[in-house]
Specification:
The complex is a heterodimer of chains A (102) and B (575). Chain A is mainly α and 102 residues long. Helices cover 82% and strands 0% of the residues of chain A. Chain B is 19% helix and 42% strand. The longest helix of chain B has 27 residues. In chain B, the strands form eight sheets. In chain B, strands 20, 22, 23, 25, 26, 28, 30, 31, 33 and 34 form a ten-stranded mixed beta sheet that branches. Classes of the chains: A mainly alpha (102), B alpha+beta (575). At the A-B interface, helix 1 of A face strand 35 and helix 7 of B.
Chain lengths: 102, 575
């Protein structure tokens, strides 16, 4: 049986989309359950996951070398990185406070 | 259940119930509920009536698109029915292709193994002499008409077994076609070859008396025979018959005349090049079957030809008798060695010569040349044309060795682009250094995109200055409305009377609107044709997503928003 990289790419793309959608659902669940800084942290992470999912879905429509969708894919990726960083920083600050660090 | 635990659960529910619900939560809740109900109802209807009903329902809403499509494909030629047969002639075996004349048809194109083999045929037959023994080929014919084109079904064919026998040398001297060899020795040695290993070779010399013998070829089909007695001076005829040892009905006889004289005349050496270049058509004239001077009335004639190397680089030049070059072009043959060249730029009336150089793409020192004298003027009448049709091949002349081909424009695509999508950019570079080493004034270069029927679908002009623009990196956008197919990018420069062009083929495909992997994509039309299934899949995905989201929201209503240290300790989260 030959390994076809194109079939693998298709399967991997489905895995990415399903995983991202499930992550959105479960992150929503966490946001609805927690309050205060942990809530803020997870809201940032939720934002990151949502824009990541958007970027993945948009990239399916990014065909050819002159597609305007390409701009939105790049923007969504940049936003993903920004939201993810903010989420991690908020969680870090919260843990520092809980730990009593100065 | 212990009483304390029941009480705690009750409290938890109370807390959750009394929590202030935000506006977002309310919207989300009602949205999920409403969407879920609509989806369930729609899908239930789909399952009740069957998925086809849903598809038809959605297709009905976009019926206008399919109506427009059906209007565009009206009135193509009828479908050609193609038959093949394995044939033989004196030199080689070949595959004969025949098909019926179809209505509303101007010409036929033949494709072999998916690639164009020859185009513009007006007859209903063709001989594929480049087919190799033992290889199975797939052929189909496309009938081209003013209202479109229609392809035949593909048929497979292979070259049949033919007996070929040749006399290669007399007394070690090679033979030249059309010349009767003259030899000194009265009992010469003949050698030859057949394509049948261990073939029985019957040799006979008919002179004053009959001399005959039966010998056997070796495993490679080579044979040698010495005349057993001395022959008289004068002309003699040698008959050689090769017989297949496994099938006596397969045999072939040839005749070789020779003259015995007092001295040996060495034959002229064979041409050194092994790249065979042929010019096969000029407009509608089949040059392989034409013995008059070809005349075209078109000022922009179309030539086609073949070369025995795949993807050979072709350089074509048309010059006048005064050797003033007019048109110089470079392009590439296809994988079957077929090339097609519509002359760019208007030509004046009079005698012209086309010089063609076919270069092996992997070895630039290996090339073949051919030329054709033709006239631009009043074309032959039908009666005259019939007289000119014959088997004599007079047009395929070699280019004189002292003829210098001009330097040509070098056009390359910037990336490894075998295709682009309609609406995308084609990036390319043009090197002017070879063609214009001493360019002094500002020039105008024209870039064109032409389709397979030689219609220009896009054109742009650019001014280049001699100082800066020795190499031009440029691009143009393929118009989004062009259809899928083979196109050519053409760069064209004019300098005085000279027109210098470079052509490069590129495939244009319809741009898909969604691409899930490198080989899985959907175009707009494909999406419309399977819209029902797409909607069902998307609705199912949305149902799963919002269902899970609703479930998660439901569970979160039981969340205890105040966590005590004691509780965490009990559950083992902290010490």
């Amino acid at each position: 049986m030959n390994f076809d990289i194109n079939d693998f790419e298709l399967a991997a793309n489905f895995v990415v989309i399903f995983s991202a959608l499930l992550s959105v659902v479960y992150t929503f669940g966490i946001v609805w359950r927690v309050e205060k800084k942990l809530d803020v942290s997870y809201k940032f992470l939720l934002g990151a996951i949502v824009v990541f999912t958007f970027s993945e879905i948009l990239s399916f429509f990014d065909v050819g070398n002159t597609n305007p969708v390409h701009f939105w894919v790049i923007l969504a990726k940049a936003l993903f990185a920004l939201f993810f960083l903010l989420g991690i920083l908020t969680a870090r600050r919260m843990i520092q406070e809980v730990d009593g660090e100065k | 259940m212990p009483k304390a635990r029941r009480k705690k659960k009750k409290e938890t529910r109370k807390i959750a119930k009394n929590r202030k619900k935000s506006t977002l939560r309310k919207i989300t809740k009602w949205h999920i509920l409403y969407t879920g109900l609509v989806l369930v109802a729609y899908l239930a209807l789909g399952f009740w009536l069957g998925p086809e009903a849903l598809r038809e329902d959605i297709k009905g809403k976009v019926a206008g698109a399919s109506t427009v499509l059906s209007l565009h494909i009206s009135g193509p030629p009828s479908k050609p029915e193609i038959t093949t047969s394995a044939m033989c002639n004196d030199e080689q075996s070949y595959i004969g292709l025949n098909w019926n004349f179809t209505s509303d048809t101007d010409s036929y194109d033949i494709y072999r193994d998916g690639a164009l083999l020859v185009s513009g045929i007006t007859n209903n037959y063709y001989r594929d002499e480049s087919a190799l023994y033992g290889t199975i080929y797939s052929y189909y014919v496309i009938a081209n008409g003013p209202l479109g084109n229609t392809a035949s079904d593909a048929v497979s064919a292979t070259v049949g077994k033919c007996v070929i026998v040749k006399v290669v040398a007399i007394e070690g001297m090679g033979l030249v076609v059309g010349e009767i060899p003259k030899i000194k020795k009265k009992d010469p040695v003949f050698s030859g070859i057949t394509n049948i290993p261990y073939a029985a070779i019957r040799v006979e010399i008919h002179s004053e008396s009959l001399i005959s013998d039966l010998i056997t070829a070796d495993e490679n089909g080579n044979w040698e025979w010495k005349v057993p007695e001395e022959l008289d001076y004068g002309q003699h005829a040698l008959y050689v018959t090769a017989i297949d040892p496994n099938d006596n009905s397969l045999h072939k006889t040839i005749q070789q005349d020779f003259i015995i004289t007092g001295e040996m005349v060495p034959p002229s050496p064979p041409p050194p090049e092994d790249v065979v270049c042929r010019i096969t058509t000029l407009d509608n004239i089949d040059l392989t079957n034409f013995r008059c001077l070809p005349i075209t009335k078109k000022k922009t004639p179309i030539f086609s030809g073949t070369v025995n190397i795949s993807n050979a680089k072709i350089q074509a030049e048309i010059s006048t008798p005064s050797a003033k070059r007019k048109v110089i072009s470079s392009f590439t043959a296809n994988e079957n060695g077929y090339w097609f060249w519509p002359v760019r730029g208007q030509m004046k009336k009079g005698m012209k010569t086309l010089y063609v150089k076919s270069v092996d793409p992997s070895d630039s020192n290996r090339f073949g040349t051919c030329s054709l004298r033709f006239k631009v003027g009043k074309a032959y009448k039908k009666k005259q044309l019939r007289k000119c049709t014959g088997a004599t091949l007079v047009q395929s002349l070699s280019v004189p060795p002292d003829y210098n081909f001009s330097e040509f424009l070098d056009l390359q695509f910037s990336g490894p682009e075998k295709f682009v999508f309609a609406g995308d950019d084609i990036n390319f570079k043009v090197n002017l250094e070879k063609a214009f080493p001493a360019m002094t004034s500002e020039q105008k270069i024209v870039f064109q995109l032409v389709d397979s029927q030689n219609n220009s679908v896009y054109q742009e002009e650019k001014k280049i200055s001699p100082e800066k623009d020795r190499k031009i990196f440029d691009s143009f956008r393929v118009p989004p409305y062009v259809g899928s197919g083979q196109y050519k990018v053409i760069a064209q420069l004019m300098e005085g009377d000279k027109i210098i062009t470079a052509e490069k083929s590129i495939e244009i495909k319809e741009k898909p609107i969604i691409k899930l992997s490198s080989n899985w994509s959907l175009t707009y039309i494909q999406l419309l044709s399977s819209l029902g299934w797409v909607v069902i899949i998307l609705l199912s995905l949305a149902l799963i997503f919002f269902g899970l989201l609703g479930l998660e929201y439901h569970f979160s209503q039981y969340a205890v928003l105040q966590v005590t240290e004691k509780e965490l300790k009990n559950k083992g989260y902290i010490d």
